Amino acid sequence: MRNLLLRCLLLCSLALLAGCPKSASKGTALDEVQYGYSAAIRWGDFEGAWNLVDPKVRKEHPLTDIDFSRYKQVQISGYRELGASTVGEGDVVRDIEIGVINRNTLAERTVRYRERWHYDEAARTWWLVSGLPDLWGE
Asked: PROSITE patterns from the entry (predicted)?
């Protein structure tokens, strides 16, 4: 009886595992990386968001400690996608509206930002190629 119960549990477990996806599609992977990026921005984790920027872009346009300290002067009050489209060789562009509060003056303003995401076949991941948002309009 015990062996029969164990076999049934094993078969049920195998049946459940068979229904699990083997690998994430590019679309699902994009959704996941964009969700992680937007969460990092919303919570003010610009160092974490920086890790999702294409390594080539990070090398060509490195951010300094002063740059990161500027991001600590603001708090994000909102992050909203306004629209998305596919451009070029499969890149995805998203228009974003970000609510920004200056921590010193408590003044709130809205910044529009365009993200551009590129799929890296070699790394099998999506990278942000547009860099972090410019919250100061420079």
From this structure: PROKAR_LIPOPROTEIN
52 has a pLDDT exceeding 70? yes
Single-letter residue type at 47: E
Tell me the chain's radius of gyration from C-alpha atoms: 21
Write down the pLDDT at residue 31: 94
pLDDT of residue 12: 40
**Of the candidates 50, 104, 48, 115, the residue with the CA atom closest to the CA atom of residue 80:** 115
Q: In this structure, what DSSP letter does residue 45 have?
A: -
On the question of pLDDT at 135 being above 60, the answer is: yes
Nearest of 96, 86, 82 to residue 119 by alpha carbon: 86
Give the residue extent of every domain in the chain. Answer: 25-128
* Distance (Å, whole) CA 51 – CA 31: 16
Class of 25-128 in CATH: alpha beta
Structure tokens belonging to residue 45: 């984790």
Please tell me the total number of residues recorded for the chain in this structure. 138
